[in-house]
From TrEMBL:
It is a multi-pass membrane protein. This is Sulfate transport system permease protein CysW. Keywords: Cell inner membrane, Cell membrane, Membrane, Sulfate transport, Transmembrane, Transmembrane helix, Transport. The gene is cysW. It is found in: Cell inner membrane. CDD domains: TM_PBP2.
């Protein structure tokens, strides 16, 4: 057997081996990189998370639940959930409408709208809170008018909702815009030719195609809404039992050296974050399964 024939016989097996194992780095390099990643995750994620729950339960389970049942803590929990319950649906409606318009239609101002959607990513949350104070505060542009009509936005729940909506509104739109652009308009155009109305096209074609991306954006939006600190801190006024959300209440308790109570409330936020991560993982798997040409490995 010639040398060339031997190469031809070995080539299919070698090609199959390379396809089954695309990693070409030496084993010790892979072990080293994996070890570094595990150490990093342990030091900066697992250890702080364990420390939160350890400090929360350090004085016992009874003290833990008493801290959560405190009127001020309970008020902060309810306010956090209320703000998220208002901000997330508003951002859901805006993100869905904006992404549909940007991905499916051409119109003047499209580039400007896309830029404005990214604005909260480039502006500090503290600055956005100060902008609302400048507009709706007692000495702000609309402050005297609000005072004359017995209205209050700053240092009240409406201000917290506005600040939260501002810092969270890009999340849904930014998840849906590239997804809708990648899917194109072929299905919608075919449905239009067949006589479907705009609402039917949206409800039966567009929305089912983006359901997992929509869920992913809603999860991220909700996580940011519950954990927002900077903008809410500026507009809330830190009125204990009235305008303090969970992150603000944690800060107050920590500054008062009430560490166990502070970590008890922080542990509740951590639990909500873990639930969010679980839902995010489900959404990612759903998006991978729904992606055109997805393989079993992707799923």
């Amino acid at each position: 057997m010639s040398h060339d024939s031997a190469i031809l016989q070995r080539a299919p097996g070698a090609r199959a081996a390379s396809e089954s194992n695309p990693v070409t780095e030496p084993r010790f390099v892979r072990w080293a990189l994996t070890g570094i990643a595990l150490v990093f995750l342990t030091l900066f994620l697992a250890v702080p998370l364990a420390a939160v729950f350890y400090e929360a339960f350090r004085k016992g389970v009874g003290y833990y639940f008493d801290s959560l049942a405190d009127p001020d803590a309970w008020s902060a929990i309810k306010l956090t959930l209320l703000v998220a319950a208002i901000a997330v649906p508003l951002n859901l409606a805006f993100g869905l409408a904006a992404s549909w318009a940007i991905a499916k239609f051409e119109f003047k101002g499209k580039a400007l709208l896309t830029t404005l959607i990214d604005l909260p990513f480039s502006v500090s949350p503290v600055i956005s809170g100060l902008i609302y104070v400048l507009m709706f505060g007692a000495q702000g542009w609309f402050g005297p008018w609000l005072a004359d009509h017995d209205g209050q936005i700053i240092f009240a729940v409406p201000g917290i909702v506005l600040a939260t909506v501002f810092v969270t509104f890009p999340f849904v739109a930014r998840e849906l815009i590239p997804l809708m652009q990648a899917q194109g308009n072929d299905e919608e155009e075919a449905a239009h030719v067949l006589g479907a109305s705009g609402w039917q096209i949206f409800r039966r074609i567009t929305l089912p195609n983006v359901k997992w991306g929509l869920l992913y954006g809603v999860i991220l939006c909700n996580a940011r809404a519950m954990g927002e600190f900077g903008a809410v801190s500026v507009v809330s006024g830190h009125i204990r039992g009235q305008t303090d959300t969970m992150p603000l209440h944690v800060e107050i308790l920590y500054n008062e050296y009430n560490f166990s109570a502070a970590f008890a409330v922080a542990s509740l936020l951590a639990l909500l974050a873990l639930v969010t991560l679980g839902l995010k993982l489900i959404a990612e798997r759903g998006m991978a399964a729904a992606r055109p040409g997805a393989t079993q490995l992707d799923q």
